[in-house]
Every structure is written in C-alpha cells, then in structure tokens.
Amino acid sequence: MKQSELFFKTRKEVPADADSINASYLVRAGFVHKHMAGAYALLPLGLRVIKKIENIVREEMNVIGGQEILMNVLQPRELWEETDRWESAVDIFYKLKDSRGKELNLAPTHEEEIVDIVRDMMKSYKDLPFAIYQIQTKFRNEPRVKSGLLRGREFLMKDMYSFAESNEQHQIFYKKAIPAYFSVFKRLGLEAKLTEASGGIFSKYSHEFQVLTEVGEDTIFYCDSPTDECDFAQNKEIAEVKEGDKCPKCGGTIKMSRGIEIGNIFSLKDKFSKPMKATFLDKGGKEQAFIMGCYGIGITRAMATVVEIYYDVTKNKMIWPAEIAPYKVHLISLNQNAEAEKLYDELRKNNIEVLYDDRDLSAGEKFAEADLIGCPTRLIISKKSLEKNGVELSENNVVKIIPINNVLKELRKNNEGR
Amino acid sequence: MKQSELFFKTRKEVPADADSINASYLVRAGFVHKHMAGAYALLPLGLRVIKKIENIVREEMNVIGGQEILMNVLQPRELWEETDRWESAVDIFYKLKDSRGKELNLAPTHEEEIVDIVRDMMKSYKDLPFAIYQIQTKFRNEPRVKSGLLRGREFLMKDMYSFAESNEQHQIFYKKAIPAYFSVFKRLGLEAKLTEASGGIFSKYSHEFQVLTEVGEDTIFYCDSPTDECDFAQNKEIAEVKEGDKCPKCGGTIKMSRGIEIGNIFSLKDKFSKPMKATFLDKGGKEQAFIMGCYGIGITRAMATVVEIYYDVTKNKMIWPAEIAPYKVHLISLNQNAEAEKLYDELRKNNIEVLYDDRDLSAGEKFAEADLIGCPTRLIISKKSLEKNGVELSENNVVKIIPINNVLKELRKNNEGR
C-alpha cells in the first residue's frame, strides 16, 4: 500500500482523553478512532492487525477441531431466563425493547444461544464430542472504562464452547485447549502464564492466561523459580500463597505481579445444559445433560496487550511482532521514488506485505511516523544509500546497507529465522 | 471436512415457522439456526458461504480503491442529533440507555460515524478522493419480518462511503462503483438490473441493483427489448412508465416484475458533511464540505437471494454457484471408505475444497442430504463405480464415470471453464 493513498493520519499530541498507553499509541498512530468511551473504530492499519490476530486464533482453534459459526448480538429475555441470568448478570447487560415491546439484551457471552442451537440439533452420544467457536463483537455495559482497548464496552472476542458426553471426555478437550492457547499467544508475541482462578459467575474450575505487566487489572501470585521450570500461578481471588512464600510446588519464591487476562478456559459441567434441558441419549439409551466447557480469547484486548508490552516510550514507537504487524516491511523513500517504486513493485510481486512511504515529506517526519506505526522491518532508500547502490535495512535494532538486488533474499532469510 | 465430524444436521420437515423459501432451505440444510424472528445464527456451512461472499465483495471494493475499516454498533444520541436523524429515523432504531443513562442506538447505517472519523482526520483537498468500507453487523428494528434472511433485524452489510472535493470528483467514483457492483453480483451468480430509484431518506440521486424474481419486495418496471441491449429500469416509487408502455429509451416494451434489492448506491452531496461541519480546505484555501456517496450490499441478503433464485423445488435441493458454494466438491462414499478416503486426501492436498460423506448411512439418505446442501460437483464412489475403476462425477446435470486417477484433472478442467 502506498502511504500517500492510505486512509490514515498520525497525531503528534497525546489525545487529551486517552486513558491508557494502548489507546494513546493506537489513536496517535492512526490505527483506531475513538468513537466514545469504551468503543473504538478500527481504521485500516488497526483492522489489519486485528484480522491477523483473528486468523491466528482461527488456525489454532481449527487444529484442535474447533468449528467456526457466527451467533447473534440480540438475545431474547426468555432464553436468558432459562438459566436465571436475565436478572443476575444485569449489571453488565445492555437491555432494550424492540418495537413490539419484546425485551432483549446485547450478548456479552453466548452460552445460552449455543446451548439452544445444540439442543435443537444434537441428540446422541454419537454426535459427541465437538467444539464450536465464533469471533464476534461483544457488549458489556461497563459503568467505567479506563484501560483503552483492554476493556471496552464493544469489543471482539473469540468464544468457544465444547460439548462432551462425560467429564472424562470433556477433560480430554480441555487439556488440548491449553497448548492451543499457548500457541496463539506465542504467535502474538505474548508470554502468558496459565493461572488458576475462580470461575466467576461459572464455577470453581477455571484457568486464566495472564500476561504479567504493571498495567494489568488482576493480581497474580506466581513462582519465580530460578530454573523457570515451575508453572505455579494463582489469581489473588483464590490464592493460597502470598508474596515471599515458598512455592508449594517447587520450593521457589512466590512473587506478586499485575496481570492482563488475555484468555480463559472454564469447565461448565451441566450448569447451562441442565436448566436448558439440553440432553442426548447415552450409549445405554439414557438421557444425559451435555458436559460443557467454554474458552475465551479477547481479540481487541490481545492487540492492546501487545501495545502495552512492546511500546518503547523513549523512542515514541510501537513495535509489532512480525506475525501481526500491519505490514511486515515499511519502505521509505527519501526523494528517491523512481528506485523505491521499483523495489515496491518487486516486493509486492513476491507477496511481501509492504507499506511504501511515497509522500513528499521530510525524512524526520517520515521516520517519526514509521516509528509510531512500528513495522518490524524498515527499508530506506536515500541518495546516500543509492551511492552505495544499496538500501538501508533496519530490523531488531540492527541497521545495515544491503544491495538492492539482495533485498528479497535478505527478507526471506530473516523471515525463516523467526 | 469429513461429514461425520461436521457440526450440522439436516431436517426432513419444513420448519413450522419458516416464512420464506430461503429460510426453509437454509434451516433444513443445516446452514443456519433460527434464533428469533429476524435473527439467524450462521452454522459452519452457512458461515462458509457468507465468508466467500464477503471476500468477493472485499476484492471488488479493493479494486476500485476502497479501504476496509470496522466501525461500531453502539451509537451515541449526540452524534445522530447532529444530522437530525435521532428522532426522524426512530422507527428502525433499536434505542437503549447504558448504566450511566447515556442514550444509544444500534447502528442501522454509518454515515454519522464515518463523517465523525473523517472530520477528525482529513483537512485538505490533497487527502481526496477516498472511499472507505466495512463489512459489519447491522440492526433494524423491523416491526414485522416475513422474508427469512432477506430482511432481518440483525444482518451483515457491506457499506462503503466515498469522499470527494467536488461533484465532478464524486461522479468519477460513483461511475466506477457500478461495474464493481456488477462484478460482485456476477461472481455471486446473480443477474442484477441497475434501477433508478428514489433515495429514500437521502436524496433523489440513487440506483438500486435489483434481482428480478417473484419473491422480491419491490416493484420494478424494465425494458424487455428483444435484443437485450436496453438497460432501462425504474423502481415503481419513481417510475415514469407502466406495464405495456413503450420504453422511452429504445421503443421496446416495458414489463413489470418484482425485485430483490441486493445493492444500492447513493449520491449524498453534503447532506451529512454540512450539518456535521466536516470540511476541508480546497485549492484556494477555502473551507468546503465533503461531497459524499454511500454504497451498500446486503451480505446475508445476497446469500438468501441466491437460494431464492437457484433452489429446485422439484428435486428438493439447493444449487450453489461454484464461487460461493460451501464446498466445491461433495465426495460421497457408498460403503467404499478405503478408496474414498484416498481420494479425499488427494483432493485436500491439492487445495480442492471437499466435503466428504464418510458416514454409515444409506445411499438414499446421503443423496437427499447432498441435494439439500447443494455443492456444485458431486463425486460418488460405489461398488458399481469401482468395478469400472472409476468415480461417478455429476456436475451441471451431467453424470459420467471417470477413472479415479483423472478426477483432479477433470475438476481442474471444469473449473477453468467457469
């Protein structure tokens, strides 16, 4: 994409109403537009990041047999009365009435709808097990929002629901979900800790995936073993340890940290299937309620978390992990558009995602914007570089001049290393 | 995908509450699940069709320079008061209040939000022209719904907005949008008529893309010229002709038909930019309001329209155009899973989308379901076909036995012909 044509503008000043690092950077870099408190529009650069995150999540959910569907935002009151959640979860619901006076809410989660679908379709143990997921816009009527895109009123989630004939069958899938989640987060460039947690409104059987960082909303106790081999971590909500304690698993030292919860997995047992009479016939011909699990990943939140972890305040820049960067390569022409355009065409022909700054601006302005945007690889074509018949390539803080003809080879080499 | 693992069930009976051909077929074939009147969940097969439609729309909008973003469902009252639409369009709004008493609606369209974004970002004629689109879930508080997925309360739309410095510059894009729309509809297998129409709440400058069929909600007068060269068509709303008249363009005969509006394009002039004070500095340094257009395609509606046009009631089947079929090939094993599985693996290795019926059901049950699902190419491996060392291939009502080793070649040949 030529930057002269890209629908985007950066801002020099920090937005007055930015409530977080992630919102400040994403707004200033032209990735998102603040619509109202807790709701952001995704502009072309931001949407590219989000789609890459979505596709990583899709790929990893498909690997463990997840099948994608798309459920509804509008939810009829009757469905949520079946599980007694119409009144109880009222504080996070957006409730409304349609023109006929029918009461609705905007779905903050989809256990009710998926169970309604499954009870209409699946009747036999032969249909089990299966797991269904969607990537969908969710709504939470948060009284206050203060963390930018980390906690919004309108945001994208991947939510998956598993159905099994028994707790044993359920556990098999639950245990497959854990490495699939780690694969997702690794590809997003995020190191997550599997953390024992309370199930909130669900049950006591749950795990959260926490990214440790000062700006997290949760308090996490984890083992800081010198060998890094112990995976003990507990949310404060249920913690049996405190800072400085010995780790009950390995004898290492317990540390306290803040965490951003970027994913969670719950065993639901028959909590939803039983009241909704979602049953199947087991091998013996007996009616049984489905044993369920649910598995969430915040898509918008994942993007915001990456910003929080990877921004560089001293250089005023974002740094995107290669797999979710809006463009892998940022090609910057310093008044050398004839040569730059040739390279741009060559990169595109070879399916390399490239943002090409072809604009008539000063080097300083171009570099400042490129810093903000944060593509992992930068190519600069200048009079100076061309004198050496070359291009300046910067990547991972290494800068070198390489011959123009070697750019493709170099990019491919670096890509393989990842 | 192995059909034994696919999250899907067909139904033999027509759903009692089906209000249309499209809903009846899509529900019975397991493509969608009815959630409530006017809202359907997309199950795996239905979501595959929708994603293919979305990608065709994306490709064609990108060709004419459209850039994709994603705006918000929640809309604050203040924004819609700027254009005086909070009260006037009240009949199709879902309105609600959040926990702080703030008034919101669920977006049925996005002129207000896109103008708000653009006025924050774009200040100069140098930024113009551009066109921005999104594919997003829309909401309309319809008092009655009676056409299945043709007219829902919650549905997917592609909406694009163009911004120009003058009416002349606007017209250039408007005229590019028309062939782009025809390309979309052609790839969807739909023959559309460009129809003059009133702009509804917008202005008198608009065109609709109408698919002529008995079940359409609109009345269309069009020229039935014997040479098929005249493109005269008008919506009844503004028609200057009636059935049997001479076509004012070519002298042919005017016919009346029902139409399904699957797309529309509007010239908006400064209708939204002026009240919202969305201005840029023109070449002379003078402040001007942006000249806008908007361009819609109903994504969910397009799927429903294809069903209405292509279903075959005598054979109780759907027939998907190849480019949007949930799977291109339906491979059916009649108790020959060892041979079928080999072919299945070969097709997948060669990136051919194949649904493989590996289930332990009778030939009759398998064929009835395959008819309902409606993949364009069917391969049957049976004892009979294997006796000839072959596979039965049916496509476009032609059935033949071909050697197993030729299947790939045959599929590729047929694909090129499209």
UniProtKB/TrEMBL annotation, chains A, B:
GO terms for biological process: prolyl-tRNA aminoacylation. Pfam families: HGTP_anticodon, tRNA-synt_2b. Its EC number is 6.1.1.15. GO terms for cellular component: cytosol. Keywords: Aminoacyl-tRNA synthetase, ATP-binding, Ligase, Nucleotide-binding, Protein biosynthesis. SUPFAM superfamilies: Class II aaRS ABD-related, Class II aaRS and biotin synthetases. This is Proline--tRNA ligase. The lineage of its organism: Bacteria, Candidatus Berkelbacteria.
